[in-house]
Amino acid sequence: MKKLVSMMTLLMLLAGCAATYQPIPEGYTGERVSIADSFTHKTASQAHYFILEKVNGNKVKDSWGKTRMDNYGRGMIFTPSIVSRDILPVKQTLTVKGLVFFPTDAQALFGDNMAVTKEITFVPVVGEIYKVNGKLGDAPDVWIEDSSGQRVANDN
User: Cα(129)–Cα(41) distance, rounded to whole angstroms?
Assistant: First the structure.
């Protein structure tokens, strides 16, 4: 069992070190839009995270992974780390995910992460600040909302 936990820990740490996609090309100086992850229901042993996981199929840095890296080795004690990133104001497909964050490896291995994933295609509005939000448990859902709390609609 200790070997399994050690292997899972090593894999999680290595995955956290892997290069992630940068949604804004290097040197780009044009218009941008901000989109932030969020969390709710934080207790001493877990929190519900709502993250931007991918932009056009490419994995981006997210709050679940950042919290995992920032709090590794602290046992049950954890402080949420929230990621906000800029994206281009063009039609894109964003993969958003809701899941439970557990601060320890044992919880992560045996706990119910209640994961829900959705793809949303839309054109972000310049100057708007977006947030990934959702709910887990009964009728789980995840969505992107604008600064007034309105859900964005799919542009498919």
Answer: 23
pTM for the whole structure:
0.84
Rounded to 10 degrees, what is the CA torsion of 107, 46, 142, 81?
-110
Q: Is the pLDDT of residue 11 over 60?
A: no
Distance between CA atoms of residues 152 and 123, nearest Å: 9
CA distance 144 to 35: 9
Containing 48, the helix (H) or strand (E) segment is strand 47-55
pLDDT digits (tens, 9 = 90+) for 126-155: 989 999 999 999 999 999 999 999 999 888
What one-letter code names the amino acid at 91? K
